Amino acid sequence: MSTDDRSSYLETGAGDGIEGADRIDRIRTVLGREETWAEPPADLLEDILRETGRNVTPLPTRSPRRSHPGMRVAAILALVLVGLILILGNGEVEEEGTMVAMEGTVLAPAARGQAMVRETPSGWYIRLEVRGLPPAPEGSYYEGWLWREGEGVSIGTFHMRSTEPVALWAGVSPSDYPVVHITLQDEGEGPAPSDRLMMSGTMPDG
Amino acid sequence: MDRETLERFRAGDETAFKAVYQRYGGAVYTVALSILGDRGLAADATQITFVKAWRAASTYDPEREIAPWIYAIARRTAIDIYRKQKPTAELTEIDDATAGPGLEDVWEAFEVRMALDSISDDEREVIRLSHFEGLSHPEIAERLGIPVGTVKSRSHRAHKHLLELLEHLLET
Fold first, then answer.
1. In 3D, which of A59, A182, A190, A184 has the Cα closest to residue A131?
2. DSSP secondary structure string for all residues of A45-81
3. Could you report the per-residue pLDDT of B63-98, keeping only the tens digit for each?
4. How far does CA B36 lie from the centroid of its chain?
């Protein structure tokens, strides 16, 4: 069976005993569909660049590593300080709260961001904004925790399949549970935290 | 797409990101439109797909092909939008599509669109006029203002070229 025979069949649909004819027919069907030829809006790339430029700083390539605990604390404090300066400095922040710098672990070395923690009459609202944390794989999800030594309280689950900030809620005080953890959980494995810690951050006074 | 561009994409280079969009933007839009059936929603899905890709670029492994990586983000994004937009009664349809023939259709559409975006504009147009608009060779000749003989040779070359790019679909 020559390539010419098959391409001729693709072109005309005529021919007997063409190897892979059913597959070629499927391609012909796709070629007749509107969506195959539809073009995205001409200004879509500009919109994308505008959004990424406004909200996202390109992430530097990082290799998996464990930082020295002292350096890690210093980095967290520095990021917290920057967050506080940004909040207090421009006066345009919609929601005020305590900023917690979040850093990826060796399982998610490119992930980083911040959690804004604010007390409300019904509990502590935690808005998580992270970059570089990929969507949770099929059959799994992320879970947030407020943590203290040996004990964690779930603050909600999410999958990171959206670009929006994640809203989490806590019924315990972050001053008692000063560490924010993000774990990767498998569906059907029960409510206990897994050992796959993806991100972590500590309250400034924690 | 060359390795250097993919390395720069991973490092957050905007020019490389634009190149990735130029190469895969049409195919992602095709995937989104195939799933959502609405141009506005498909544009939203395409935008979100590339924002996600930009944000996750540092997790991409340049040793691996980028097309399946982009496709996975696009399909997931479009399905998420579909679920938000459609009544619950229709969810079964798309849930099944994630593991059934529907998924294969969308993947084929992505592959065909990528192949079409790889051939010359002349070849692409003659295939479009033939399969999408259903024109005969004489009609295409009249539309393009070129001899019928030129249409025939161009069409033959275009289909051969396209099939070479889609050879892997024939083997599955």
1. A59
2. HHHHHHHHHHH-PPPPP-------HHHHHHHHHHHHH
3. 889 999 999 999 999 988 888 876 554 544 555 444
4. 14
CATH of B1-101, one of 1.10.1790.10, 3.40.50.11270, 3.90.70.10, 1.10.1740.10: 1.10.1740.10
Distance CA A118, CA B77 (A): 30
Largest CA distance in chain A: 78
Nearest by CB: A44 against B46, B128, B156: B46
pTM of this prediction?
0.58
Tokens of A150: 């040996």
Give CA–CA dist B47/B71, Å, rounded. 13
A34 — contact with chain B (CB < 8 Å)? Answer: yes
In sequence order, the 6+-apart residues with CB closer than 8 A to the CB of A147 are A153, A177, A178, A179, A180, A181
Domain of A198 in residue numbering reads as 98-202
Structure tokens, B64: 């691996």
Please report the residues numbered 51 through 90 in chain A whose beta carbons come closer than 8 angstroms to any beta carbon of chain B. Answer: 51-52, 56, 58-62
Q: Phi first, then psi: give them for residue A61, nearest 5 degrees.
A: -70, 130
